[in-house]
């Protein structure tokens, strides 16, 4: 008996040690891992995105039987927005040949950027991550469409100018940046510094440590003292609802608190109650269910109980739709890769080429049921971002509605900064590989 | 029966004082080292190496560091995360300022920077003890973390505030940076850990270790015996911080490959290391390894190991389960065996020694 027990224990240990992931599945599938966070202090923002990303892919599987008949194998790995766990997830999934990886955290993206080129896996950091990675000549494996944080910050300045009646009116104004004290939050600082010098407004920084996300009173004390004219909120997770509540409590005019696109969760604004009406955030896609693509998700995923959303009315929330948009980019890149190679089961290298040739036109958006949902996106070898226009959303008390026209980022400022920063990155990382990947010039 | 010492005669004082007096122990150590140096790099998957073995070794080093201070000298510290950070940032600055020098040299040298900072924060230990000292070291944790975030020179004015580890080679093979294979990183780390463990073992078994333990057991008595308290305590702080610093440098350079202080060297990390020492066993080098293995790899084994043996677990659920289980197991261990896993191992060894005839 005792021997039997020992054998069992040994077998269990052996099983744990040799727990290598099973080999890649059959020929006609593509494997898309989703690094998500449904736990931890950032879960409030992470859950709707995770749901949206998953549901769109599931809808493609259910409605079309996959991308041109190639089934998508979806698997979530929980990161908790923790860099270490995210890298662990990546390590555990890599041997199964993912065609694209979304880290969904700036910290994890920063860790994985050097590895993407070595492991030959394209990385989609949709409108987050390292702004400089938009430079495709130096980062051939990283894609961050449709806009970088630097674009976002420049749009914030342009929006401020619109409200004030021209860029020349910005002189003497004060712009505060309340931000998470992490690589994510610090990203817009360099471009805001350049723009502050150019237009003569004053930039004030209000860093909030991750540990103090829900206790921002000391930061708001400074804000009350400085009285900035506008506040740009680069927060995430539990930090955003707290910022909205604090703004209300400190009598900061709520329509002058503008979040980056990630600070636009429905729960972020809802926390402020009725007084949060007028809270703004940047966005590059619409909220709501009024689009054929969302209707299809309701029909093919939610109605068949395949969705993981807590309640059905969360479908169509702003961050949920962001997840949908993120998955749409991946699916379109895979579709483009299929066209480029003529093969159905594409590899990671093919999908990288697919991203570089990505051209989502107005007509294409209509085909996939996203007319009016988002703007066209076009990438090329050198530009992995597009620096697309964004608009400003406004919380009307129950949902986000578009409150501005599309605003163009100040590309003449942002793009040279990005090229410069990318060059510096490659210099600082000695031995950074030169781009050897051939450029597809389909268009 | 397994630990029968009959027939193992010791004929010299040296043999009697050996760290591993019993032949079986020596064989055991040799087998473990052979597995660690040969079998694991050859057969273990990249995931096992990078997500189980490397974190285990990094934290083992940090736990040895804290154990020297807390377990052997009896000075509680909550600043080990910050001292790890000193090592990592020192190593980063050194290797970017002098890229020609081999990175392993800088990893070791960065420990001395950490030791120097440790001594500064150790000075109050002459006058304050126990909880008061813990709070003083907590101040070190917050102050140093503040420095890492607020002094841009430390991270070379990087926009994102994170340090990015450049590629460095040893005999032409990359050991840091993205192109370094997990096996190479692991072997370098393992060599450092084995060498420093050997050093620590010699320290704690010799005159210095005895004076540390004398201070721990009763500092007034130790002083009466002629042990100078301040140098002894400061030496403990220096050696402890040295180990933590090297662990931090290893963590950034051989494991993370980049990162920032709020994420990697925060107070949670200090608590983590403290838990490892407490669970593993205060005042035991073996305990540092056991505790580090327990705390650092249990979440990974739960999250990836349990689904691998066929029990479906969603990531989020596994995450919650990990928190519950780690918490419950810590309480369980502290009740059942307050002296930690190392003591359990000693008991098991004692049982094996007399088996099958228990007294």
TrEMBL record, chain A:
Residues 29-396 form the Leucine-binding protein domain. It comes from the Bacteria. InterPro entries: Leu-bd, Peripla_BP_I. Pfam families: Peripla_BP_6. Keywords: Signal. The keyword Signal applies. Residues 1-26 form the signal peptide. Belongs to the leucine-binding protein family. This is ABC transporter permease. It comes from Phreatobacter stygius.
TrEMBL record, chain B:
Keywords: Cell membrane, Membrane, Transmembrane, Transmembrane helix. It is a multi-pass membrane protein. GO terms for cellular component: plasma membrane. GO terms for molecular function: branched-chain amino acid transmembrane transporter activity. The chain crosses the membrane at residues 27-49, 56-83, 103-123, 130-151, 186-204, 234-258, 270-294, 301-318, 324-345. It is found in: Cell membrane. CDD domains: TM_PBP1_LivM_like (cd06581). InterPro entries: ABC_transp_permease, LivM-like. This is Branched-chain amino acid ABC transporter permease. It comes from Phreatobacter stygius.
């Amino acid at each position: 008996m005792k021997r039997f027990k020992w054998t069992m224990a040994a077998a269990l240990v052996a099983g744990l040690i040799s727990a290598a992931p099973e080999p890649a599945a059959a020929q006609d599938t593509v494997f898309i891992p989703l690094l998500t966070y449904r736990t931890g202090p950032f879960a409030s923002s992470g859950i709707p995105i995770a749901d949206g990303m998953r549901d769109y892919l599931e809808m493609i599987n259910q409605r079309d039987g996959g991308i041109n008949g190639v089934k998508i194998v979806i698997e979530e790995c929980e990161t908790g927005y923790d860099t270490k766990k995210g890298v662990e997830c990546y390590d555990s999934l890599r041997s199964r040949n993912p065609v694209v990886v979304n880290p969904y955290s700036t910290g994890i993206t920063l860790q994985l950027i050097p590895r993407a080129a070595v492991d030959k896996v394209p990385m989609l950091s949709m409108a987050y991550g390292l702004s400089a990675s938009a430079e495709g000549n130096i980062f051939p494996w990283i894609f961050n469409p449709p806009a970088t944080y630097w674009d976002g910050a420049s749009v914030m300045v342009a929006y401020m100018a619109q409200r004030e009646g021209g860029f020349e009116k910005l002189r003497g104004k004060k712009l505060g940046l309340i931000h998470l004290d992490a690589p994510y939050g610090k990203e817009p600082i360099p471009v805001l510094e350049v723009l502050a010098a150019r237009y003569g407004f004053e930039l004030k920084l209000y860093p909030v440590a991750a540990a103090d996300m829900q206790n921002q009173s000391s930061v708001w004390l400074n804000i009350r003292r400085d009285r900035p004219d506008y506040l740009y909120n680069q927060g995430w997770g539990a930090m955003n609802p707290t910022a909205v509540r604090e703004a209300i409590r400190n009598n900061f005019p709520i329509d002058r608190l503008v979040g980056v696109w990630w600070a636009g969760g429905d729960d972020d604004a809802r926390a402020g109650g009725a007084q949060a009406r007028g809270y703004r955030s940047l966005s590059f896609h619409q909220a709501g269910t009024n689009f054929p693509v969302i209707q299809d998700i309701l029909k093919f995923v939610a109605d068949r109980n395949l969705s993981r959303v807590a309640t059905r009315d969360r479908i169509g929330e702003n961050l949920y739709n962001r997840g949908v948009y993120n998955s749409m980019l991946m699916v379109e890149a895979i579709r483009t890769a299929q066209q480029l190679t003529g093969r159905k089961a594409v590899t990671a290298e093919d999908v990288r080429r697919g991203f570089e040739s990505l051209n989502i036109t107005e007509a294409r958006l209509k085909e996939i049921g996203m007319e009016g949902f988002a703007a066209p996106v076009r990438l090329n070898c050198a530009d992995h971002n597009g620096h697309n226009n964004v608009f400003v959303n406004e919380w009307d008390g129950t949902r986000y509605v578009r409150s501005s026209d599309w605003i163009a980022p100040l590309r003449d400022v942002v793009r040279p900064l990005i090229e410069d920063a990318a060059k510096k990155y490659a210099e600082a990382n000695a031995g950074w590989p030169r781009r050897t990947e051939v450029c597809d010039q389909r268009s | 029966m397994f630990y029968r010492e009959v027939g193992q005669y010791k004929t010299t004082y040296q043999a009697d004082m050996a760290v591993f007096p019993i032949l079986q122990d020596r064989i055991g150590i040799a087998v473990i080292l052979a597995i660690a140096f040969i079998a694991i790099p050859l057969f273990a998957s990249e995931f096992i190496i990078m997500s189980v073995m490397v974190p285990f070794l990094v934290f083992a080093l940090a736990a040895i560091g804290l154990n020297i201070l807390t377990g052997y000298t009896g000075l509680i510290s909550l600043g080990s995360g910050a001292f790890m950070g000193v090592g990592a940032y020192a190593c980063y600055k050194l290797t970017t300022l002098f890229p020609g020098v081999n990175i392993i040299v800088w990893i070791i040298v960065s420990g001395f920077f950490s030791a120097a900072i440790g001594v500064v924060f150790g000075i109050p230990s002459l006058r304050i003890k126990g909880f008061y000292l813990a709070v003083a070291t907590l101040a070190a944790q917050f102050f140093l973390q503040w420095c890492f975030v607020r002094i841009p020179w430390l991270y070379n004015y990087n926009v994102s505030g994170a340090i990015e580890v450049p590629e460095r080679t040893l005999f032409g093979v990359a050991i840091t940076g993205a192109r370094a294979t997990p096996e190479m990183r692991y072997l370098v780390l393992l060599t450092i850990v084995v060498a420093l463990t050997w050093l620590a073992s010699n320290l704690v078994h010799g005159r210095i270790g005895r004076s540390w333990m004398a201070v721990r057991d009763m500092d007034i008595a130790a002083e009466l015996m002629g042990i100078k308290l301040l140098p002894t305590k400061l030496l403990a702080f220096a050696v402890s911080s040295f180990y933590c610093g090297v662990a931090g440098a290893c963590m950034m350079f051989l494991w993370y490959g980049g990162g920032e202080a709020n994420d990697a060297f925060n107070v949670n990390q200090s608590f983590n290391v403290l838990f490892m020492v407490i669970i593993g066993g205060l005042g035991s080098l073996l305990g540092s390894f056991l505790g580090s293995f327990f705390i650092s790899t249990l979440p990974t084994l739960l999250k990836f190991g349990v689904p691998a043996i066929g029990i479906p677990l969603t990531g989020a659920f596994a995450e919650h389960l990990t928190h519950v289980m780690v918490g419950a197991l810590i309480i369980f261990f502290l009740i059942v065996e307050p002296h930690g896993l190392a003591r359990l191992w000693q008991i098991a060894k004692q049982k094996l020694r007399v088996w099958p005839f228990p007294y």
